[in-house]
Design brief:
Pfam families: TPR_16, TPR_9
Keywords: Repeat, Signal, TPR repeat
Mean pLDDT: 87
InterPro entries: TPR-like_helical_dom_sf, TPR_rpt, Ycf3
Structural class: mainly alpha
Number of helices: 41
Distance between the termini: 123 Å
Helix content: over 70%
Largest sheet: none
Length: 726
């Protein structure tokens, strides 16, 4: 069989074409271009410097320095991808320059490519296991990745390689600080400064350590020394800006941060801290410009987005939520954005989302330890930020659960109290939860405990007033509300609770005054409108009562008290069908309102629906034997019903007598019912006397449908009163 012969061409080794060697003259011109570019770098003229390095690379493709310097220029311009490419070429040309591996790793880290950065450094360390700078560089990558423990390990190795240099101690101190081991950091910083009292990095770390301890004056001393030792060390300027900010010397803070930005225009922390200072000054537009710059420089740094969200939260909540969401995406173990996003969801009343975020916080950190470190913003904090305690997180989640109707609120408050038995907000929150569950006794216990710990807690006073409302302890309600309003004169809730107590006591003008004050503070209080409507009803000003009920129902379409009071007012106007419809609506929203059942029974009484009226009045009095509407109106049914089968003078007397006793013989409705019972029994002299007393109560005398004067005439004529039929 014939085979085709393949021609063989010997090209010689090596097969891969090497870069051409520049002529001596071209090489010299390349060196000159590199020197010009280097000078431009010192002047921060990065774009012009890159042009010189471009020329050098064209003249001499083997000039490693041209690629190394151009990579650094790209970094200064925020282009880490091009920097990595140039560092790759520099490493290929000068593989024994360990500094190139470290610089390339920093560029990879800026891109968030931590694994590639670590791979390159691992290779370099295998080639030069005694090179301390490589361990320092790898520690920086571990720190950026959030693994401070490995960063400390590498810095310890660097110290061993470098024979315990000041630089190594200073770097390791920074890693210890990231771990929250300030004692170890302090020891390393003392060693660093003993070896080199002018170590700018160590002095800067010392200053930051003082800032974390809120010792701003001492911090400034160390930071001044750091800047003096190395005026180009931007980290010291950034930290000193933070120190001035803690002293609220905003202009001095901005001056240092401006200088840092000029010297290092790709340092995200410089822009970030300046943005925070500008926000503190109220310069929100400029602040957001700084945060936008920080995001462009560090698009994979979760804390950059977190910091921008903190400033956006008050004015741009939706954009703040987006920033917190991005921070969480970049670092799923970062608790602070979850906590803060939950706050914003709660402000938007998106309770389920708030609860989910707090669930995730507790899932990630079940024991809720080290919340201060996970909540700390990037860079030097220029504001003192509140870091939530574990108990506060459970209270926050519990409040969201209660507000959103999600089960588990009381359990969260109990867990908060297990963690901190003296946590007053947890006690008040659990007390409020017990109130919502209809357990006033348990609520009272929590409010009492809260007031023992904090007698000036207006919220606990108001909460206890609410519990006393449920228990009918009206004098106690007034006392607690008075105390709460002394502590917080703008507490609308206390005003509303006190107005209810005045309403029950028949103090109509005081009820109206408290409701007026509450509505001035919070015009959206449906309960204030509802309580005021009850007072207008008590004064028989039916139109004003109905107007308040309508306002309450616009604010809260399910306000049972507003339906009940409107039903009562419509009874006053003789609108029986509409009154019954309102009572039905009230009971649909709150079936436990026995007084509304009594009102409906009274309305049915005047419509001539004797059987249904009797059923409602019996049901109301079974639920509350002392109901002030049920007793006189059932008595009236038994004394004055047009159908004789419902009349029973003895039972009418018993109900009316009980009603008079319950109202201290001062209420016209009860006295008139007793008069009708006497008339039914044929005791007309007693009936006349009692009806005259009833007419002394202006509230009763003005109710036309009760025919108060016609009754008196009937009794005087020795005739019993009869309810009109259908």
């Amino acid at each position: 069989m014939f085979r085709f012969a393949l021609p063989v061409v010997l090209l010689g080794a090596p097969v891969a074409l090497a870069r051409p060697i520049a002529s001596p003259y071209a090489a010299l011109r390349a060196v000159a271009a590199v020197e010009r570019g280097d000078q431009l770098l010192t002047e921060s003229r990065f774009a012009e410097a890159i042009k010189e390095f471009d020329a050098a690379a064209r003249l001499d493709p083997r000039n490693a320095k041209a690629f190394r310097f151009r990579a650094w220029a790209w970094l200064r311009m925020g282009d880490s991808s091009r920097a990595v490419a140039d560092y790759d070429r520099a490493v290929h040309l000068d593989p024994n320059n360990m500094g190139l591996y470290a610089s390339r790793a920093d560029a990879w880290a800026r891109l968030g490519e931590y694994d590639r950065a670590l791979t390159g450094l691992d290779e370099a360390i295998r080639r030069a296991p005694d090179e301390a700078s490589l361990f320092v560089a790898r520690s920086r990558v571990w720190s950026a990745r959030g693994d401070s423990a490995r960063a400390v390990r590498d810095l310890t190795l660097a110290s061993a390689c470098a024979a315990r240099t000041s630089e190594a101690f200073g770097c390791r101190a920074g890693a210890w600080m990231d771990l929250g081991r300030f004692d170890r950091a302090l020891a390393d910083l003392e060693d660093a400064l003993r070896l080199d009292p002018r170590n700018a990095a160590a002095l800067q770390c010392f200053g930051v350590l003082c800032l974390l301890r809120n010792e701003s004056d001492l911090a400034l001393t160390y930071l001044d020394r750091s800047v003096e030792a190395d005026p180009t060390y931007t980290k010291a300027l950034i930290a000193r800006g933070g120190a001035w900010a803690l002293k609220r010397e905003w202009d001095r803070a901005i001056a240092d941060l401006d200088r840092a930005v000029r010297m290092d225009p790709i340092a995200p922390s410089a822009f970030m801290n300046r943005g925070r200072v500008r926000a503190a000054k109220g310069e929100f537009t400029k602040a957001l410009e700084d945060f936008d710059a920080a995001v462009r420089l560090a698009p994979r740094d979760a804390k950059v987005f977190f910091n921008r969200a903190v400033v956006r939260a008050s004015t741009q909540p939706d954009r703040a939520i987006a920033d917190y969401t991005e921070a969480i995406r970049l670092d799923s173990g970062y608790l602070a954005p979850l906590v803060n996003r939950a706050d914003l969801w709660a402000a938007k009343q998106e309770w389920a989302k708030a609860v989910r975020d707090l669930d995730e916080v507790i899932r990630l950190r079940p024991d809720l330890t080290d919340l201060d470190r996970s909540h700390r913003p990037c860079g030097v904090a220029v504001f003192t930020e509140h870091v939530p305690t574990p108990a506060e997180l459970y209270v926050q989640r519990g409040r969201c659960r209660v507000a959103g109707g999600i089960a588990g609120g009381a359990s969260d408050f109990s867990e908060a109290l297990r963690l901190d038995p003296t946590h007053v907000p947890a006690l008040t929150a659990r007390g409020e939860a017990f109130l919502a569950m209809g357990e006033p006794g348990a609520a009272m216990s929590d409010f009492d405990a809260a007031l023992e710990l904090a007698p000036d807690c207006a919220q606990a006073r108001t909460g206890r007033a609410g519990a006393r409302c449920m228990k009918g302890e009206w004098d106690g309600v007034i006392a607690d509300c008075d105390a709460a309003l002394r502590l917080d004169p703008k507490c609308a809730t206390a005003l509303v609770a006190r107005s209810l107590a005045w309403l029950v006591k028949g103090e109509w003008d005081r009820t109206i005054a408290d409701c007026d004050a509450a509505l001035r503070l919070d015009p959206k209080r449906a309960d204030a409108h509802a309580n005021r409507s009850g007072a207008w009803g008590g004064k028989t000003e039916w139109d004003r009562a109905i107007a308040d009920c309508d306002a309450a129902l616009r604010l809260d379409p399910k306000c049972a008290a507003a339906f009940a009071n409107r039903g009562f007012a419509r009874m006053g106007r003789g609108e029986w069908d509409r009154a019954i419809a309102d009572c039905d609506a009230a009971l649909e929203n709150n079936p436990a309102l026995s007084s509304v059942v009594a009102n409906r029974g009274a309305a049915r009484l005047f419509r001539g629906e004797w059987e249904r009226a009797a059923a409602d009045l019996d049901a109301a009095l079974a639920a509350n034997p002392n109901d002030e509407t049920g007793l006189p109106f059932r008595s009236l049914l038994r004394a004055a019903c047009a159908d004789p089968k419902y009349r029973d003078a003895r039972q009418a007397y018993a109900d009316a007598k009980r009603a008079c006793d319950r109202t201290q013989w001062k209420k016209g409705f009860a006295l008139a019912a007793l008069a009708a019972a006497y008339a039914e029994a044929g005791q007309f002299d007693e009936a006349v006397a009692l009806q005259k007393r009833a007419l002394e109560d202006a509230a009763y005398a003005k109710v036309d449908y009760l025919e108060p004067r016609a009754r008196l005439e009937l009794y005087a004529a020795k005739k019993p009163y009869r309810l009109p039929g259908k």
